[in-house]
Amino acid sequence: MDGTIVPVLGIMTGIIVPVSVFIWLYFESKDKNKTILEISKNIDDPSKIEGLIGMLDERKKEPIDYRRTGVVTLFTGIGLFLFGVFFLGSVLKGVGALVAAIGLGQIIAGYLYPNTSEELTNAVEDFEKK
Question: Do 120 and 114 contact (CB within 8 A), yes or no?
Answer without folding.
Answer: yes
